[in-house]
Each structure stands twice: as C-alpha cells, then as structure tokens.
Amino acid sequence: MEENNYSDDQYGRARVQDSPELIAYYKELETLGAGALWTVANDIEPWEPRSSSVPMLWKYDDLRDLVLKSSELVTPEQAGRRVVYLVNDNRKDVSAAVGWLYTGIQVTRPGESTSAHRHRASALRFIMEGEKGYTVVDGNKIMLEVNDFVITPNSTWHEHGVEEGGKTCIWQDGLDIPLVNALEANDYAVYDGKQPLTAPLNFSPMTYGGAGLIPADKTWDKPYSPLFKYSWKNVYPALLEAQKVNEVNPFDGIFMQYSNPLTGGHVMQTMGASMQLLPAGFKGKAHKHTGSFVYQCAKGKGYTIINGKRFDWKERDIFCVPSWAWHEHHNLSETEDACLFNFNDLPVIEGLGLFQGRELTENNGHQQVQ
Amino acid sequence: MEENNYSDDQYGRARVQDSPELIAYYKELETLGAGALWTVANDIEPWEPRSSSVPMLWKYDDLRDLVLKSSELVTPEQAGRRVVYLVNDNRKDVSAAVGWLYTGIQVTRPGESTSAHRHRASALRFIMEGEKGYTVVDGNKIMLEVNDFVITPNSTWHEHGVEEGGKTCIWQDGLDIPLVNALEANDYAVYDGKQPLTAPLNFSPMTYGGAGLIPADKTWDKPYSPLFKYSWKNVYPALLEAQKVNEVNPFDGIFMQYSNPLTGGHVMQTMGASMQLLPAGFKGKAHKHTGSFVYQCAKGKGYTIINGKRFDWKERDIFCVPSWAWHEHHNLSETEDACLFNFNDLPVIEGLGLFQGRELTENNGHQQVQ
Amino acid sequence: MEENNYSDDQYGRARVQDSPELIAYYKELETLGAGALWTVANDIEPWEPRSSSVPMLWKYDDLRDLVLKSSELVTPEQAGRRVVYLVNDNRKDVSAAVGWLYTGIQVTRPGESTSAHRHRASALRFIMEGEKGYTVVDGNKIMLEVNDFVITPNSTWHEHGVEEGGKTCIWQDGLDIPLVNALEANDYAVYDGKQPLTAPLNFSPMTYGGAGLIPADKTWDKPYSPLFKYSWKNVYPALLEAQKVNEVNPFDGIFMQYSNPLTGGHVMQTMGASMQLLPAGFKGKAHKHTGSFVYQCAKGKGYTIINGKRFDWKERDIFCVPSWAWHEHHNLSETEDACLFNFNDLPVIEGLGLFQGRELTENNGHQQVQ
Amino acid sequence: MEENNYSDDQYGRARVQDSPELIAYYKELETLGAGALWTVANDIEPWEPRSSSVPMLWKYDDLRDLVLKSSELVTPEQAGRRVVYLVNDNRKDVSAAVGWLYTGIQVTRPGESTSAHRHRASALRFIMEGEKGYTVVDGNKIMLEVNDFVITPNSTWHEHGVEEGGKTCIWQDGLDIPLVNALEANDYAVYDGKQPLTAPLNFSPMTYGGAGLIPADKTWDKPYSPLFKYSWKNVYPALLEAQKVNEVNPFDGIFMQYSNPLTGGHVMQTMGASMQLLPAGFKGKAHKHTGSFVYQCAKGKGYTIINGKRFDWKERDIFCVPSWAWHEHHNLSETEDACLFNFNDLPVIEGLGLFQGRELTENNGHQQVQ
C-alpha cells in the first residue's frame, strides 16, 4: 500500500519544473506574504522523521575540572546558576543538548545556596557527586544523594544549596527551556528573598514514597508527580528485583520509568525519565524511534552505537540520542551490571500522537560501526 | 435553605390521609402492578443515609479454635473453600458482614491447596498467621506473610495453598459477593485442573512494587492494580515515615490507601482498602460517612466507638462500621502504636457519586458511650 | 477450560454432607455471628448472573385513566409528587420496576407545580403527553415536549409544573432510588420556597445542544451531562440520518445512546438511557446481558420476547427487561419504524466491571415463545 | 512576591562581567561542546512569553486571482497539492503562518482530484467557495459546503476533489507540519492508487453528528474526533441559539469550540478550532495569552487590533495572532453579526501546561492604535 522507494519523482509528490512564468508567479506571491506550496512541499513533508541534532558524548573526565573551576570564577550570586551547559553542535541557536532539551552540570560548594526562582519551563536533576546537597521545591526541602533523581516542575519555586559541612555537590540539570521557548510560552520570576519552608524536611518522598500507597486523606490536583525525589537507594534494588523475574528487553535491558504514582504516567507534563539496567555482558539490539534522549551513566561502563558510530561511556558520562537515530547499548563488563539514566521528551511525543519506532532487522539487529 | 427538622409533616413530603375512595384506588392500582408513590415516598426517600447493618465485633480469641476445627471437619476438596464467614445480624439474608461486603476466615494446613476458580466478584485477603502460604492469581504465584494484603480481582483465576513444611495459615477473605449478587451480575467457573504458573514466583510484586517506578516497556490494560501484593514489610515502614512528616488526621491517624500505581486509584473496581496507624495515645474524633467498612486490627489494641457503643479490639480482631454510622478510633496504649486494616466499598460509593460525610461537632468531637 | 455442566457435585463446589458433629458446629458458629461458608457457598456463587426480577409490561391503555384520576384524588401539595409507580412483582420490597430501578408515571395539570427538592438519587423523565410542561433543574427552567428526555441529576434542586394555558402533562419518571437506598447513601432536602431562576429559559439545551460544539469560554466540573434536555425534534432526525449510512444492529436496530457531550459517556453516574429505532419489519435477534432496563415505546408498535414470553407493546407502553434475560425486539409494522426509549443501570454495571453478554445461537437467534 | 521590574540587573539573574580569564574559560568549554550557562541564561529565560512571529493579514481580494491562476499553471498531478501557502514574515524558514502552524489556500476545479497520501502531521480545512467539493478520510467520503470545517487527522489517508458538474472549490488548509517537523516526528506515505470507499457517503457526520447522541453499539478508539465534518448549517444556528441565552464574552463574543463528542476535548491532538460570533456593534476588549491562532472571517466585516496595529478584515480574509500578542476584535457593522473561524495549537499549549493569559486593564481594556 505504501511505496517506500522514497523517490520524489512520483505521483503524490511535488514535481513542478521552473519556468519563467512560474518564477514571475512566485515573485508575485512573495509580495503578498505567500508562496507556492509545491516549491517547498517535498522539503517540509519528509518521508521519515528527520532530526537536526547529532549524537554527542560529553566525558565527565574532560568536564569535571572545568565545572569545578567555574566555582572559582563566578559566584552563584553573579551567575544566577553556576552551570556548564552541554550543547549540541547543531542546536547552538537554541542552547539545546538534543532536540529541544537543555542539559547542564551545576556545581555548588558547601555553604552555598542559590536564589529562588520559577519559570514555566520544567526542570529535573540527577545527582553526580557530593554530600548534603538539597533542593527546595515549593517550600519542601529535600536532601539529595548520588544517583537520586529529583524534579522541579513547571512554575514551582525552587532553589538549591549544600549545607555547611557537606561536600561539593555536582549534578546534572535537565530542562525543557528550548521547547518552552519554541512554543513561545516561557516566563520567569525571581523570589523576593528566601522561600519559607512550608513542609517538614523530605515531606514529599516520605509521604508519597511508599510503593502502592498514597495518603488516604489528601488530594493532589497538580499535573505532575507529588513524589519529588526518586532515591537511588530504592531504585537500584527495584531494578535488581525486577531483573530476577523479567525477561531482559533486547533493546533496553531492565527498563523502569520514573512514574507519577497518582497516574502511572510521566513525572511531568513535558519531560519523562527512566533508568535502565544493562546486565553483565548485555549486548543490546538496535532500534530507532521518535523522541529525544539525554543519558547519564549512573553505574558501570559500556558503549552505545548511534547511527553507526560508537560512543564509549562510563559512570557520569553524558550522551544524547536524537529522534529517529538508530541506537543500541552494550555493557562492556562481563561481571557487573551497568545503569543508564535518561530524561526525554516522551510526554510531548506520546501526548501529541507522534511516537513511532522501528527495529533493525538486518545483521541480527546490530549496526555496522563506521 | 434546607429545612433540617426532618418532619414528614411539611410541604414537600407526602401527607395524604387514607380514605375509602383512596383505598379502593390503591387496590385497583395493585392489580396492574402499580401503586401510588405517596404511600411509600417518605419511606423510600429518607432524610439521611440509612443502613440496615449493625456494628459488630468478632473476637479472634473466640473464633480461632472454631476456625482451626473446621480443618478437622471438612477438607478443602469437600468445602471448596474452608472458611468461617462472619455475618451481620441484620444481613444474614445476603451473607454480608456489613452492607454488601462479605468477609470470612480461611484456614489452610501445610500441604493443602484449593482448586482454582474464578468469579465476577472480586476478592482480597489479609494474612493473619502462618508460614509459606501462597496464592496464585492468573498464573502468578505469590508468597504470603502476616499482615500482607493481596488481591484477586474480578474474573482472575485463583487458588491458594500452604507449602509442605509451612505452618497452618489463617487469613481473612474479603469479597463483594453480596454486591455483585445484588447487581445480578455474578458468575462462577471451575478451572479444570491446576493453573499453570505463567510467571516467575512473585512476578507481580517484584515488577510493580518499586515506589514511583513502573516497567517502561510493558503495558497493562486491566481495570485493577498490577500490584497483587502489598507487603507489610513495606507498608509499616511507610506509615512510620509518613508519621514523621505529617500531621495526624484527627479521625484516622496516619492514613494510607492501598493504591493502583498506574492510576492512583483504588486497587480494584468494587473494593478499596487502607491501613491506618493510630499513634500511641491516639484518641480519634468521631465522624460518619457513606460507605461500609470491615476492619481488622493488624497491630496493638484499642477500641472503636460506633454509634455510641464501644467495641474493644486487639490484634486479629475484626469489626465493621456500617454506612453513616458515627465512629471514632482510640489506641489503648500510651507507648505503642496500633494499626487498623480495612477494606470497603468506596470505589462504588465514590464512583457513583454517593460519598458524603459529617464530623461530630458537639462534646469536642467525641460520642457519649451508651 | 471452564466446565459448563453447572453441576454442584464436582470438585471446586461445596459438597459437604450434614452430620451431627457438623450441625453442632454450625450452631456454635451462629452464636458468634458466624457460619460455615460451605453451607451457603453454592447459593451465593451462582454459575451465571441471576435476577430476582420478572419481565413485566404496563399497558398505557390500562393505566392512563388511573393516572389522571390521581389528579382528582390528591393535590401535588398533599402528595409531594402525584405519581403512579410501576412495581415489579418480585421487587415490591424495594419499590423497584426492575433490578434497582424505580419508575413511575406523573401527572401535572395546567397551572400546577410541585415544590422543589433534591436527593442523592438521580432522576430522569420521558415525556408522554401534554403541552407547556416544564422542569426546573438547579435554577434552569426547561420546557418539555412529547418524547423529550430530560435529566435531574444527583443532588440538583428540581421541581416541575405545567404553565397556565397548557395541557395536562404526563411523563415517565425514572430514578435510582432503590439502588441508592440499597447502597445506604440516599438523602433528601426540601427547598424552602420556590427556586429562583438563575439562567434564561432553556439555557442548558441552547448552550450545550450544538452537535460537536461546546462553549469555548466555560468550564463544567459536574460529574453529569451539562445538557439537561435531549429533544425528540433532534433525536428522531438523527436516528433517521444514522439509519441511512449504518447497518442495522441485529439485536437493537439503529441504536443511539444519550451522551454527555463533554465525556462521550452516560448522562449521569448511575443511570444511562438510549433510544433505538426498529426499522419497518425489523425482527431482532435474541441476546442477554447484565444490566436492568426499563423501556417505553416512543413510536409505533411491536413486541418483545423476554425469556420466551411475548410482550406486545405500542406507543406509551412501558416494559422491563431484567438482567441476564434473553430478549428480542420485533416491529409489527411492515411500513412504519418503531422507536423504543430505555433507561438502565449500565453506568453502574459497566463502571464496576460487571458487564457481560451472550448471543442466542440456536434457532437462528430467535427464542421459542412459550 | 514576584518582582516585575524585569531588570536583568538583579539578584536571581545572570550578571557576570567578561574578563580575560573568563573569555579563555569560555573558549575551552566550547571545544568540549559546552558553554557557561550565565552567558545565555537571561536570553533563554525571558520574563514573559516571547513570539518570533508578527501579526499578518492576507486579504482574499489580493489572493483569489493568484490562487485561481495556479490552476492554470500546474496540475494537481504535478503539484501534489495546488496550494498557495501563507507565510509569516518571520517564519519563512519553517513555512509557518504563525508559530508552528502552516496554512494555505487550495484550489480544485470540477472533475479534478488529488492523490491520496498520509502523514504524521494533522490537517484541517475550512471551505471558502465552490460546490460539490469533497474529501475522503480513511475511506469515508464527505461532501463540503462553504464554511464547513473538516478534519483529516494524524496518519489518516486523505484525498480531495470536486465532482464533475460542481463549481471550482477553494478552501483553507491548516496543518501542524512546522510543529511536527520541529518535533522531528513527521513522515509521509503515498497511497498506491485511489482509496476504496469503505463507508457510505457522509458516514461520519451522519453517524456522529447528532447532538448529545452517540452510537450505542460502536466503539471508537482513535485519539481524535469521530466527527470529521462540522457543518456551517448546524454551527451558525447553534451560535444564534447560544447568543439568546448567554452573556457576550467581552473578548470573544459568542465563542464555540469544535469538540470531539466522545471527550469534550479538541478535535485533534495537536490542533484545535473554534468559531466565534461577534454581535452587531461588538467592540471586544483586549487580552493576550499563549498559543498561536490563524483566523478566517466566515461572515461579516470588522477589524482586529493586534499589538496596537489595526487589521481590517471581511469575509474570507485570513489573519494571524501570535502567542502573547494583545488582541481585540471589533465588528464594523451595527446591524449584522460577524463570524470568525480560527484554528490554533491550544491542544499543545494546554496539554503541556503552558497556557496562561492576561487581560488589558488600562484604557478600559482597549489598546491604543499606533
């Protein structure tokens, strides 16, 4: 039924040859803020999804010193946020790491804290190192440990810091700023002073963090998860438990989505996140699908082949997979599992009916590395 | 705006006096399968919700020996299920403990198992004592420990047993059989032979039991929770965590609903369940609301005043609170917390728009004990 | 997999013989508010859905004079509502026409009006005859014409009347009073005086009655349809349109559900309604399903065979089909279509996961009439 | 709490001065695919929503001849679609009329038809002139009349034409092609030959076009409206009815959203549409909100002031309002109403939690025209 030769020289595609008459016609249209669709149709109606991003890898060994150096160069007061952001070679115009997703690495020293602000864009964090770091989300202070995943959803007041006596904290920020800017809907407000703490320390994870349990006497009417922190100390054991009773997904190993316990859906309206465990020796098969993904290695070492190019990663390295790029994950260890955290724009892609995928069938499901 | 004197002798209520002409008219109507509404209107349109059940308490000390004796009197093969059921004095016609809820106490000895069956009615269990008990729900075998809560939803194949080498297991069953019969929708089927196990042991709790985590690569299209077991070893710590950061609910202490992690709703379509922790010294205030409740004390000791009558309970005792009955819970210990499990018909009452409640305002919120 | 012989003398059913020891045991249990499940199990766990209602037909020719006579015998002031209610021979204890559904025929003379009240039970009406009748629902006055369907949902203030200069109005009331009483959740309140009209005449149907159109600048947060009247002048043409392009459903002809335009679901939480057109000469096949139904013939004449018994109906006759009863509808005219209105408890049955059906396969899908 | 002076020279914004050391640092970051957030933060985190589109008006008097001329210059076979598209001065790179919305004017002569294709992008049409035009959506042929609104959702096969004996048809196309391209998810397929008609003519509007009625025996599992055509012959009377009983919205007159009758939501997942009636003499007040809008005047004449600039329109003129632009609509006639059709990206903006609005308070709610 479909013709898949993808030639534009066929009935159903624009095949108009230029002529002097047509060129004159096009000029006339242009003066009226118009054009002839057939001059652009094949370009704006591609046969398959097309990404403007390239796959990239950011090695933590390269970046860590520079990130720490920023803490000597600027203060949080000057910088607003002391962050090194990671930018896709093809998305510098929108400060995106891939697609419409922003990511950066933020450093906070013991005793430092940032001002509180909020924005229509949503944010999330994945903790890379340090001790006694915290975030405050709408008056709820939450302590952070390595590999914890925390959210600061759309329009919540938020600020961060590290307690005196802690150790310098570094975490990855993920935001949908490029998307919300593209959708022409972002805003920003500065909190006048410090947010008052309106809930006991760690209220959210201690109230909503029981598996299959929700407060029977509370209502929650926000369009995002009431659970603001997903602790590694719970997440990793859950992956190990699941591994015992589930077949390994050939593409993604043991694959768990961070979820809003009140909906079973994504943690926020615009960004989702998941954690996957690649068992020792795992050699993932290749598939591609719509949606943009930023990964961080939370444990172990391995490599991912993206559109035929191999990217080797170990703990704390960050890389991205653009929409519709072939990708397959490999664990390089034969004895230890590896864990990949990712955040993505799946709530957008799925919510708007734009998700589709394809599995690589040739070569037993593995790409040829270039 | 409302008149609350609740007198039927007012405009807006039926106030027709009998007369010979009317009596003749009523008889004529009766021959046609009809009647005059005003002869029954005040009765079928009560001012406030009205329950036909009475509060009752079933003491485990009284029942335990009789329950165990059943295992000498009948085999599971003969009995189908070896269960002593608890019946409300006013609901014997429908075999209900309260409202339209059935409950019973089932005993299974080591090495015994029941046949598999299914029915449109939904079932749940709360484990009272024993070791190495298990249930099998749609091919998924799940081990049971004391104070675990498990579900066997609408039309799932299910069977139970205790492994050789275990200890005699006793658990409370809860079913909506009276409701589903009343709604004229129940059915029953016997499985021909043993259910094959289609999933590894404890698949459901090991896959869906991570807090805020769901499998990213699975879909679940059933109208009930994919999490079939809620383990006491997770539930009690969650209550303690919540206690640290939440104010105590004046009626219900620390109050957690067992929840479908994919919806944030009740575990099944017709029955909900929750667990509440009454802190040491807790003296709950009285309220009433629609919905029928069957409680079991999972820990500690205390009493509940229901419609002015005091019912003392300790671990394993079972009692019920009818719809719209005033009730308040008290922990009798000044040093230990007490925990009450309950199951209820809230999914029905809430789902059909029939929930309402009222708090007792007089006497500082406490009932006078008769 | 299922054994369908429906014999209770098989493994998986209760098969315990009485013995003196057991009888003594049962007596002991009884003193504790308990019983042995196996003594009642087969009874409360039927093989198939079981209804306590019988099929019945109420002929309007028989009832109309008696209904009108009530307007000579009592006033609305005395009666609250001047209604002849129709009661199932087997459901007199709960004043139900079938299952848990109440129905009655109400008569109002020109210039009469009733007081306003509200109750947790929901109500609906189907207009049988008269002119210039109206209902007022939460301050919204709506004019009524023959075959119009109107709703007065759960807890809305409502009252009815006929304008001076109109003609005596008769309509069928449908309520879920028996259900809401059974669920122990009903209440009642009398409005003190006349409801003020808070919206222009016919606000609801004039605002929400455009097909595929909703007000872009309004929000509606009630759990029932904002469209309170479904006019016959729109419904019948819609049936005729649908008939032109749809195959006839072998059981139900052209079959349209009254729907909440904001959800596509039932009009209220506890009762649904639909209208079906049986084309000229239609001979429906038999099926059975859960759910209770009260029908009124809105147009034409025909008969329905229910559990093997034939019930002939014509315009304005009312009949009921109990849960799980075989039923098939026949149009007796070879030239005119016939229309059947019904209301039912499908929101309950479907919402609680209790719907199931079966088609008659033998005898070409038609029942043998007894 | 918020400071609204919008100065970047305050605590909470980036305020880092360049220095030789910092410049060297920035260069080093750049070599690693990274940057310092504080160099871009204020730019990518604007205080208020910011649109890259400008308001524009396309007058039909200017365009009509050129549109018709295209039918002399190219055939549908050559052009794929014979469309003059309207492009925003600031969005030529993405062929968008405003934001991420595409619009064009398509002309089809009697006897012509296009090939069938489908794409992940969704489409809609608003009919401007002609007779006997039709569209075929997934095998369902639908006749089109002036001011009808039709949808061809995400991935449906579709084709258009005008019957022999009809009159040249011109309609406005609206698509989300720029959005779906930006989200890197578009695709395209050509149907091999003509779509077979799988449903009777006008099946969709004749089946789903009854107000408050849906087929009781059909299920629809698509994420878009089953109603593919919203006929002007129903829409305009519905506006007039609503006008009689509703207060006029000070910004939008009588304002009706085209709606999925099964959800009460937008007609498609990515684009919404509505029709508003501006009563004779209507002088709308100004507000602004997120979301991009393309308007066509369906009836009457008037003007819209957008960000202080007046745009005069009459029947068939098309104009756009960018996100967060102040806008107010005025009807220039004191005797006739005017109607504005629009389509928009509200499903995206609302669905992702990005909707917000503001009303103009100064000058009695009216903008100063520049």
From TrEMBL, chains A, B, C, D:
Protein name per the record: Gentisate 1,2-dioxygenase
Keyword list, A-Z: Dioxygenase, Oxidoreductase
SUPFAM superfamilies found in the cross-reference section: RmlC-like cupins
PANTHER family according to UniProt: 1,2-DIOXYGENASE PROTEIN-RELATED, CUPIN
Organism placement in taxonomy: Bacteria, Pseudomonadati, Bacteroidota, Flavobacteriia, Flavobacteriales
Entry-linked InterPro entries: Cupin_2, GDO-like, RmlC-like_jellyroll, RmlC_Cupin_sf
Ranges of residues in domain Cupin type-2: 106-171, 277-338
Entries under Pfam families matching the protein: Cupin_2
This protein's record includes keyword Protease: no
Keyword Ribosomal protein: no
Source organism, top-level taxon: Bacteria
Alphabetized GO MF terms: dioxygenase activity
